[in-house]
Specification:
Blueprint lengths: L25 E3 L2 E3 L41 E2 L8 E6 L2 E10 L2 E4 L7 H9 L4 E5 L9 E10 L13 E5 L28 E7 L14 E9 L1 H8 L8 E4 L16 E4 L2 E8 L11 E5 L4 H6 L7
Antiparallel strand pairs: 1-2, 3-11, 4-5, 4-7, 5-6, 6-9, 7-8, 8-9, 10-11, 10-13, 11-12, 12-15, 13-14, 14-15
């Protein structure tokens, strides 16, 4: 979501736009799944887990999916411009963004896949998770593919969102490489440091309203953002949440920034993938609250282990 200058500011404190709970120790195929929280936050979760296989869960609040999308972007993007863009769907509803890295691999943010009811779905009903490719409309067109496997980065830390990456394995290969194809892969850059005096292009799924529903079509949108000073970004969000594995992007003293994140959305520089959106402020129109990205070059070795080669 991108902030509109007419949006009412609820608070100027840096609030992180990730839906989360505080009780820890979920299990997803043997992997502990913890909910990200800043140190010192109170434990207010109402969650019960009866076994490591997550046979039942109860959650005291509900999630509004429509608050996870871009607003007031630089414009609608076509799939021909960005044929590597993917939409993650849970039960046919838009959930997060992602980038196609190979014939059967899509990269997204790990935190997109760790909410309690999602965890239950993915373990017991993984067919609830699908990926739409080949369309700039997240709700129709293109092709929808099933997900066979979810690979979290082995160093992923949910409490701080470090190494916030997940690689989805699709149930079959996508046809890539045709000249006029609407589905292509993108190469990732090996760069571990993104230069301060540069810009990235962020892609996400747009909403026609600052708050509330999308009103039907959910179209791919684009937003060019300058790289934000890393030390200032760390001062805003804290050293636990902004490390050397992150870069920040956003316009200073301006209303047009990513807000209520479109998790897993890609950041592009010179035609290569450099970042995946980790989190952003959930307060629209707040001053100096940039979006924080996980730098893809940091996990180059892990991607190579899955057969994905980048560009140096």
């Amino acid at each position: 979501m991108i902030c509109n200058k007419n949006t009412v500011i609820v608070s100027t404190a840096p609030e992180i736009g990730i839906s989360r709970r505080d009780k820890q120790e979920w299990q997803y195929e043997g992997i502990p799944i913890e909910f990200p929280r800043r140190s010192g936050e109170p434990d207010t979760t109402d969650v019960t887990v009866t076994s490591p296989s997550i046979q039942s869960t109860s959650v005291s609040t509900t999630l509004n999916l429509s608050n996870r999308r871009i607003y007031n972007s630089d414009g609608i993007a076509t799939i021909e411009e960005f044929p590597f863009m993917a939409a993650l769907l849970v039960n046919n509803q838009l959930w997060c963004g992602g980038a196609i890295l190979s014939q059967n691999r899509v990269l997204t943010a790990a935190h997109c896949l760790q909410l309690p009811f999602e965890t239950r779905f993915f373990r017991e009903y993984i067919q609830m998770l699908t990926v739409r490719v080949g369309s700039n409309n997240a709700t129709s067109g293109g092709e929808v593919l099933r997900v066979n496997k979810i690979n979290f980065h082995p160093k992923y830390k949910p409490e701080t969102l470090e190494y916030n990456f997940a690689l989805l394995e699709l149930h079959r290969n996508i046809s890539l490489g045709y000249k006029d194809s609407k589905v292509k892969q993108i190469k990732f850059a090996y760069d571990r440091i993104i230069p301060f005096n540069s810009k990235v292009l962020f892609l996400g799924w747009g909403s026609v309203m600052a708050r509330g529903g999308s009103g039907g079509k959910v179209l791919l949108q684009k937003l060019k953002l300058p790289i934000y000073d890393w030390e200032l970004c760390q001062e805003i969000y804290g050293k636990e949440l902004v490390t050397r594995n992150n870069f920040c992007a956003g316009r200073r003293h301006a209303a047009k920034n990513i807000c209520n994140h479109d998790g897993g959305g890609p950041a592009i520089m010179y035609g290569f993938l450099v970042g995946i959106l980790a989190f952003s402020s959930k307060v629209c129109d707040a001053v100096d609250q940039p979006a924080v990205f996980s730098t893809v070059g940091v996990v180059a070795l892990w991607l190579e282990q899955h057969g994905i080669i980048g560009v140096s």
